[in-house]
């Protein structure tokens, strides 16, 4: 191991040399207050920045032990320290949980330090508290992973500038963020406490017979369509309708009250622009805990809930959509539906059936992103289009059998139709952003004006509809995840894309993938699925096992490199399956969906 002097010496020596010589920096240095590890140096000034780590001994920085013992505590504490570190790189040395305003979620922060700009970079965390690889807390050390754009003049090394960044700015940042006297440990403890309280509510939902909770006073609307930050001006806080009022005693000793959405079928109605989609989007985001001040910190949804939408154009491989769709004009067997170009309705059916396979207990559906013909069909259309010409049994006729046969609850936004009144267990109306329970009125209306016959296994046309039976497992043909064009590990591009060889997986419709770090982790998980999945394992099982080992071994184990693992965040098994299912080269080892690969 070198020391500060050795680092200074090397940098002065490197001054003016060709940029590639920066690789002489690789190694570990004792910097006095901390250890610095230079794990990877960029090959040229325009390449992705160099990767470095800062390591501090636990007994040296004295983190409060009572909030850094268990895995959940460490996830929250690491999140807090990473936000502090990011703020310090930005030159904001006060303790603040909020990311800078203009930064989109999950982006890089190019630092400015105490007035001067710095080449140091850290990952800007979004509003969610996720397990991440940015900061690692172990029994004996704290490790911060960051990046540095090593300074250049043309293609020559600016050794003096690099020396300033690594031996002046970096120690200042470390001190500002992590020194016990600069740290605000009350904020750290509060951050961990909130996370544990949120976890408690999430874990209690099932026992309480609820699928979601929205705390009184929550602020659901966001600042803009492209921002995940809370609306500041004119936001109307959430108020709980009396009939749905519930409360939770929290581990911290506090109590939180709000609206509990019971299991079953819940329909959200209301006029246009009255806040229906905003509520549903908050519920969909509620599968992850949010930071204090987000406005949604008490919006908590079952961790396995999946938002379902139409996604025409996606590929589908061997999915049994027969509970919704049979007798397509092409004659294809919808028990193993396979297409390179799904329609609105077939894509929504596939998304739903895949979510059931991924073990969801709750599906969330918004009319705004649904295929109308998947959701409903009215009497006039039934008279015009004869039964044998309509392959779709609309969701309104299947939502109750789905609940009865699989136990899966639905929360649905439907402002344009009363078709769901017959099957709804709860109807909530949004009126100028305030919810009200109108279940009784909706029932009365349903009785007064019947919509049509309901029957579990016979549709409106009198046809037999496939029941929600146990699906035949889809056996993953793992080598198909390793197409011939793949010569390098998969690469994530931002939040919405993963490159596998020459193909791209488009994840832009997977709304519960919220952070580019999750996508990076998914890219790695797909690499591993391709090589480590044994024969004869169902796709669902393989994805589930992969996420379990990620939780057991930590995110670092996913990385292809030792040292700095890159910026990874934990995805759910639902999103891992979503990625596999959207890969156009996917093949199954069973069924007729064994189509040719690239
Ligand atoms: P709907 O789905 O009922 O048509 P949206 O949920 O799309 O309505 O909301 C319409 C607009 O109202 C959006 O711009 C949204 O940000 C805003 N909004 C939603 N909820 C609130 C609220 N509680 N307070 C203030 N504005 C809100
Ligand atoms: Mg809407």
Mean pLDDT: 92
Number of strands: 25
CATH architecture classification name of the largest domain: 3-Layer(aba) Sandwich
Integer tally of domains: 3
Q: State the end-to-end CA separation.
A: 48 Å
Largest sheet: 8 strands, mixed
Low-confidence stretches: 94-106, 594-598
**Which CATH C-level class of the largest domain is it?**
Alpha Beta
SS summary, helix count:
14
From the alpha carbons, calculate the radius of gyration and give it in angstroms: 26 Å
Would you tell me the structural class of the helices and strands? Answer: alpha+beta
* CATH topology value of the largest domain: Rossmann fold
> What bound compounds does this protein have?
adenosine-5'-diphosphate, magnesium ion
The dominant shape is globular
Mind sketching the topology for me?
Elements (H helix, E strand, L loop, with lengths): L1 E2 H11 L12 E4 L4 E6 L9 E8 H4 L9 H19 L17 E7 L2 E9 L10 E3 L3 E8 L3 E2 L2 E2 L1 H20 L6 H20 L5 E6 L29 E5 L5 E8 L2 E5 L6 H10 L13 E3 L4 E3 L7 E4 L17 E3 L4 H14 L4 E5 L5 H4 L3 H6 L10 H12 L2 E5 L12 E6 L2 E4 L1 H10 L42 E3 L3 E4 L2 E4 L9 H17 L6 H15 L19 H9 L17
Parallel strand pairs: 1-2, 14-20, 14-21, 16-19, 19-20
Antiparallel strand pairs: 2-3, 3-4, 4-8, 5-6, 6-8, 7-8, 9-10, 11-13, 11-15, 12-13, 17-18, 21-22, 23-24, 24-25
Helix pairs in contact: 1-4, 3-4, 3-5, 13-14
Bound molecules: adenosine-5'-diphosphate and magnesium ion.
